[in-house]
Amino acid sequence: MATVMELVKESEVQWVGQPLKRKEDPRLITGLGKFVDDVKLPGLAFASILRSPYASAKIKRVDVSRAEKAPGVICTLTGSDVSKLTDPFLQISSAPANKVKDYCLAVDKVHFVGEPVAAVVAETRAEAEDAMELIEVDYEPEEHVLDARKALEKDAPLVHEQVGSNLVFHGKWDYGDIEDAIRKADRVVNAKLHFHRFSSTPIENNGVVVNYDRATGFLNIYCNNQMPMFCIPWLSFGLKFPSNKIRMITGDIGGGFGTKIISYPYIALICLLSMKAKRPVKWTEDRREHMFANHGNERSFDVEVPVKKDGTILGFKVSAFDDCGAYTRYEPAGATIWAQVSPGVYHFPNLKVDFFQVMTNKAPVGPNRGYSRMQHLWMIERTVDIIAKELGLDPADVRLKNYVRSDEMPYVTPSGGIYDGGDYSESLRKAMKLIDYDGLREEQARARKSGKLIGIGIATAVDSGTNNFGQVKIITDDNPFSGNSEAARVSIDGLGQFQVGLGTVPQGQGHETFAAQIVADEFGINPDQITVLSGFDSAINPYSHQSGSYASRSAVMGTGALLGATKKLKEKVAMIAAHLMKTLPENISFSEGNVVDKQTGKKMPIWQIANVAWVNNVLLPEGMEPGLVALNFWRPNFTLPDEKWRLNQTLTYSYQTHIAAIELDPESGKFKILRYVIVDDCGTQINPMIVEGQVHGAAAHGIGAAMFEEFNYDENGQLNSNTFIDYLVPSAVEIPHLITGHLEIPSLFAPKGIRGVGEGGGTPLGAISNAVEDALAPFGLQITDSHQNPQHIHKLIREKISKLNQVR
Amino acid sequence: MTPKKFDYYSPTSINEAIQLLHDNEDSKVLAGGQSLLALMKLRLAAPSALVDISKLQEMSYVREDKDYLGIGALTIHDIIEHNQTIKKKFTLLTDAASKIGDQQIRNVGTIGGSSCHADPAADLPTALSAVNAHFVIRSGKGQRIVPATEFFVDLFQTAVGHDEVLSEIRLPYLPPRSGSGYIKHSRREGDFAIVGTGVVLTMGDGNVCKDIRIALGAVSATPLRAKSAEEYLKGKTLDDKNIADAAEIANEGADPPSDMHGSKEYRMEMIKVFTRRTVKLAMSRVM
Ligand SMILES: Cc1cc2nc3c(=O)[nH]c(=O)nc-3n(C[C@H](O)[C@H](O)[C@H](O)COP(=O)(O)OP(=O)(O)OC[C@H]3O[C@@H](n4cnc5c(N)ncnc54)[C@H](O)[C@@H]3O)c2cc1C
Questions:
Q1: What's the CA gap between B61 and B167, in Å, rounded?
Q2: Cis peptide leading into A751, omega within 30 of 0?
Q3: Which residues make beta-bridge pairs with B170?
């Protein structure tokens, strides 16, 4: 990739669209990044957290007396302390699920293995861990429930007794007339599907350093939460602490992928510990702890799809059972978020979804790359292949027949989503060409003759981005959020130097780079001349309370906010320039660091204007405020849900088509990827290199989930995969060479036609499960799970063979 | 997690190491640390002292003796993987070492450490059992030599006593017309085996199997020799049918554990599949 200077050829370079190297990479590559564990403060003490060994148990007694006497120990904290010092965290649920009492340490009862029970602060981390082993806890184990459907049964053990049931939310989305469609169908395709539990395991675990400053009364919080300003109400109400004295600071973050949104219980805990210890306190989560911190939603589906013989899909009728684990931290938002992409990429008018979200005694879920949509999209993509098989059609043809067409854009989905442009058919055709689909099918036929199993799987997913928080009003009107917003500040200092601040809280996505590219184009300068603040600090960065990196929103929201700020700033510079150059502001344009009078061609460097604006301010136009700082808050146009819960739930709808070709060893059930193609469209690309990186990363996550990653529980509610020995993250060896292609059809609504990119919609899960089923076609087997464990595939094959043998 | 407190010693000779072990109750040898340190961080092991032998360079070597190939206990997996003599004479060790963990692990982990740790799912112990390696164990009293069949005692237990050090592993040379192979069946490259199969065989006239040893990993408390399959094949022609028939009985005596990567039933099946494949791999290498 080119460096900035190599790219500067002509005077009017468009920086948006250039594959610039990322501004943040030199420091990250040379080990100069500053992560939360790098924060070192004078007098720093260290916390360690004792966790529940039971899936469900009453806490009869917690005795910290021995721990408190251990060497180096400063203080301890237990659930009973926490219940006195704090209020339960805010809940998004409606009654009665909002009776869940979520504290930063378990009070009276533990609800999942790994739940924090007590904490110790000591002079060193090792001493804190030594002391932790001296805390005595008496538990009285209780019945637990680990399966969403079982949790809804009448006599199921209750995860939280005071709620009276395990049901968090039951919603009915019903559009068109699905029963009529079922009556009129040539055939009704049925499937029972299960989407497994996994998460994103960022390379940096959670971490918090809190310095409660007794002099100023400030809680200074260094953390890697990816939505810190959203977290503040949770902290403020929970800790009963004024929000205007809470300062949130993030530095470099080693990946978030959504998992670092629900870390507020830990942040609250460390705040309490710092206040009690009267010392700054650090807690750095270790990998095993992280394995209990944030799982993705597990979901099972009963699907009925009326179809025509020619493959036309008339609608979907779905019952979904979502397992959100033991607490509803960001939930039940996820119970509505799938509806962002209610029909996937398909054109069908009839949709009925009965959605149950249920608590179980497993680790709580939270957002995770592709959050809540990928489960739904996987269900659709899996079903489309089942339809193709039952009708004897090629799965590509069934897709081409049912895709929303480009001439229907903007397309309004049954649930009110407004798809903002794109060409799904073209995306599939392009992917088929890249993978040589016809050639592959021939190869597959040849291979089958020699007993080799090759499978080809297609999936197309909508990757919705920039959410409308109004979607949580589906749960209850009382939820005080809607829309979305972001803040940007652009300033030119007295020496003419540009600085940009954003509220977006980057975790490695390259916000410094994209922001510089956007601003550089507006002022006709070079991105190298623009400094973008790294990290986030609520005392320094501009922010809205919806700031953060989540929902593939930062490029879109950041650009919206930046364009507003640059517009304000340019107007002011133009006014000053016009005054100095004795012309009209509308004659002023910006080029190569100068202001130019379009009529005369006369130039003046921006630094001269800046000098006047700040320090030579007697020369300013009369009455003008000094300084060159523009702060802008931006929000897209969103609406609230109507009476049928229709609303546009996101601003942008990127999409990706993946095709996987695999070869499966029928003797072991193991398979390998032979070829893998991705075509994505995220509209205008600000920086194609960053886009490519996001596409690769999302694909790797999806391939990992499909083939290796699974949070697997035993019948006692113990998490089997609680280290990287069993939770298998793919490495460079497992991820195939990714063949990528792009479309760049601009968003019809977002600033500059940009769409969010990065989550990828979990597309590989569909492509791979479809490929596995296709490989197994000679056995006539159906894949009903999103996770492809070789021993399960092997079992399917064995069972089928023994059945066939019985028939003979 | 951080380990519990421990003392640390860095001896400059193997005798000093043995003395330190003797003097410190609950002490442990530290070689590459790739198993031991992880256990200590998870607080599953809490030795009072570590006797770090990793700097004893004289314990890292591959030497050709008259009757055997000697490998120093501190020889790292990476050297095993790339040593040409090993590759030529004991290819199954090359196979096994090359599939251990990842490059960073192979740069530090040692053959002695892997043997003494005696994880039933580890690769080298299975391969060494198929070779019928001999283990040289040194103590204050001198040295003793123990064959693989007696070295691996139980789950994570070997014949090496508390104040003893494994110094060398000896691989008796194979007769002419021998070949060997090791296949690990695992989910990802570098994971612990679901089933590991090591085969060493010697051919007689034609395709007749003169001698064969089949060792299985991850299916028992220690590496397991598939004796029935071995006996079945000895003296028989190594054709597809005989190999397949032998593979069918290769799991006799196996008692594999169940976990999320492989149930007992699955492993019992995989023993057959991979025994068959590994015998064929070893055959293809007969020189
Ligand atoms: C991420 C990861 C992946 C791995 N993957 C695999 C894999 O795929 N396959 C596999 O087989 N292994 C794997 N391992 C384990 C690896 O092979 C270790 O290197 C090996 O098990 C231990 O060797 P070490 O030199 O590191 O020994 P240490 O960890 O230092 O010691 C292990 C044990 O042996 C004892 N010990 C060591 N040397 C001697 C000696 N000379 N005399 C007496 N006692 C001794 C120690 O006291 C300790 O009890 C993996 C390890 C990790 C961390």
A1: 11
A2: no
A3: B70, B134
Residue B222 tokens read as: 């220690």
pTM for the whole structure? 0.96
Alpha carbon distance A84, A104 (integer Å): 12
How do residues A35-85 score in pLDDT, each as one tens digit? 999 999 999 999 999 999 999 999 999 999 999 999 999 999 999 999 999
Domain span at A120: 36-142+205-253+260-290
State which ligand 1 atom lies nearest to the alpha carbon of B59: 41
Same domain, A788 and A654: yes
Chain A residue with CA closest to B273: the answer is A667
pLDDT tens digits, B233-279 = 999 999 999 999 999 999 999 999 999 999 999 999 999 999 999 99
Domain count, chain A: 3
Q: Which residues of A touch B (CB under 8 A)?
A: 125-126, 129-130, 133, 286, 288, 667-668, 670, 708, 710, 712, 720-721, 723, 725-726, 728, 730-731, 733-734, 789-791, 794-795, 798
Counting ligand 1 atoms within 8 A of each CB, the residue from B10, B27, B36 with the most, and so the one to mutate, is: B36
Per the listing, tokens 């209750």 go with A158
User: Taking a C-beta distance cutoff of 8 angstroms, is the pair A422, A755 a contact?
Assistant: no
Share of chain A above pLDDT 90, in %: 97
* pLDDT of amino acid A7: 40
Residue of B39, B103, B266 to mutate for A, most A C-beta atoms under 10 A: B266
pLDDT over threshold 50, residue A2: no
**Residues A436 and A399 placed together within one structural domain of the fold:** yes
Please state the rounded mean pLDDT for residues A658-674.
Answer: 98
ipTM value of the model?
0.95
A424-435 helix and A395-402 helix, angle to the nearest 10 degrees:
160
Q: How far is CA A390 from the centre of its chain?
A: 35
Distances from the Cα of B150 to the Cαs of A13, A436, A637, B119, B130, in angstroms?
A: 75, 56, 76, 15, 13
Q: Whose CA is nearest to atom 14 of ligand 1?
A: B101
The answer to whether A225 touches A268, Cβ cutoff 8 Å, is: no
pLDDT tens digits, A277-304: 999 999 999 999 999 999 999 999 999 9
* The pLDDT value given to residue A807: 77
Chain B residues near residue A731 by CB distance under 8 angstroms: 102, 188-190
CB contact under 8 Å between A130 and B4, yes or no, is yes
CA angle A707, A710, A716 (to 5 degrees): 150
DSSP string, A762-805: GHHHHHHHHHHHHHTGGGT----BS---HHHHHHHHHHHHHHHH
- In short, whether B160's Cβ falls inside 6 Å of ligand 1 is yes
Homologous superfamily (CATH) of B178-284 is CO dehydrogenase flavoprotein, C-terminal domain (3.30.390.50)
CA–CA separation, A721 and A711 (whole Å)? 6
Residue A662 and residue A671: Cα distance in Å, rounded? Answer: 7
CATH code of domain B7-52: 3.30.43.10
Among A639, A481, A652, residue whose Cα is nearest residue A556: A652
CB A787 within 8 A of CB B260: no
Q: Is there an atom of ligand 1 within 6 Å of B246 CB?
A: no
Identify the CATH number of the domain in which residue A794 sits: 3.30.365.10
Q: CA torsion angle for A498, A504, A510, A516 (degrees, to 10)?
A: -20
The Cα–Cα gap between A265 and A455 comes to: 45
**Residue pLDDT, tens place only, A603-624:** 999 999 999 999 999 999 999 9
Q: What is the reported pLDDT for A12?
A: 62
Q: Where are the beta strands (DSSP E) in chain B?
A: 7-9, 27-30, 49-52, 62-64, 68-72, 134-139, 142-147, 152-154, 157-158, 165-172, 178-185, 195-203, 209-217, 224-225
Best CA proximity match to A465, nearest among A702, A676, A249, A751? A751
